[in-house]
Amino acid sequence: VGTSHLLFATYRDGVFRYLSRIVGPADASDLTQEVFLRVSRSAAPETNAGEQRAWVFRIARNLALNHRRDTDRRPQFVALVDTPSSASQEDAVALHEALDQLAALDRDVFLLREVAGLSYDEIASASELTADAVRSRLHRARQQLRASLSPASRTRVAFHTREQR
Amino acid sequence: MTTTHTPVPEPFAAIAAFLDGERVDTAALKHALSTDEGRDYLVDVLALRQSAIEMEPVAFPIPPAAQRRRLAGVTAAAIAIVASAFGYVVGGQTDPIGRSSASVSSVEAVVDVSMPPQAPEPTEIVRLLSGVNWTTSGEN
Q1: What's the DSSP call for residue B11?
Q2: Higher model confidence: residue B70 or residue A95?
Q3: Could you tell me which chain B residue has the CA closest to the CA of A91?
Q4: What is the pLDDT of residues A143-160, one digit of tens each?
């Protein structure tokens, strides 16, 4: 099994989740394939898994940025609400709107951390930031999301979280 | 790279590091969790994380491995069919039997129906001598 196949098997879902948040699930599907097409055409860094993951997500992030620039539109989060979810639609819409209010780079950092599960160093590598800048932007994003979401909404989200455990 | 940033204040820094799997100052974490502000932050970040993960499609919709296998199967079948057709055509053009049958089909045969058919000349004459190499069936 080649390196690109391993990277595909390991990161396809994470890349798709991350891209879904930025461009919507329909375009994310195409972009995910494009990401791994580029991965297969390039020489993956023969280092540790963390650097390979950061490399894959850097490709994904660049493609997402290009896509946004080309289409000149905001991320389409509405379709995501239609997918089965444990939280209410109202909470989902609130979260989507709150994410939409974030600065693009702060949102990227937040999604790379919470949706894709990258470490600070990996996010730094994928986003061309320092680890301290990642830490700072992530904190800012979280604080802004906390402020944007109503206490009731946050409580419901936390309640859903507890119910699922 | 961007180098300007605002340091994350306590108690958030220790809790964020703990939640994000980074190196944690345990004393700072203990102090952070002793405050209402720290505990609220912990719960909110966990809730945000959970909702960010759950409120979207979880998996890549097209199973790539299965798709690759299907594509490989279809490709193999297509190659086999094309190869068979190509082999049939090329074989028909290069096989000597095929050539001779093609040439025979182009020869005109002339038959004179007015002449009675004549037996061909014998190639070997066998002489049968009674009692030597020939007997009647009743004698056997």
Answers
A1: T
A2: A95
A3: B51
A4: 999 998 866 565 555 555
Of B1, B21, B48, the CB nearest to A130: B1
CA B112 and chain centroid, separation: 62
What's the pTM value of the predicted model, to 2 decimals? 0.62
Residue A50 distance to chain B (closest CA, Å): 14
The answer to whether the CB atoms of B60 and A138 lie below 8 A apart is: no
ipTM of the complex: 0.73
Q: Which of A20, A28, A145 sits opposite B48 (nearest CB)?
A: A145
Burial class (CB in 10 A: 0-12, 13-18, 19+), A2: exposed
